[in-house]
Amino acid sequence: DIQMTQSPSSLSASVGDRVTITCQASQDINNYLNWYQQKPGKAPKVLIYDASNLEAGVPSRFSGSGSGTDFTFTISSLQPEDIATYYCQQYDSLPQAFGQGTKVDLK
Amino acid sequence: EVQLVQSRAEVKKPGESLKISCQGSGYRFTSHWIGWVRQMPGKGLEWMGIIHPDGSDTKYSPSFQGQVTISADSSINTAYLQWRSLKASDTAIYYCARQEGYCTPTSCYGYFDFWGQGTLVTVSS
Question: Mean per-residue pLDDT for B65-94?
Answer without folding.
Answer: 98
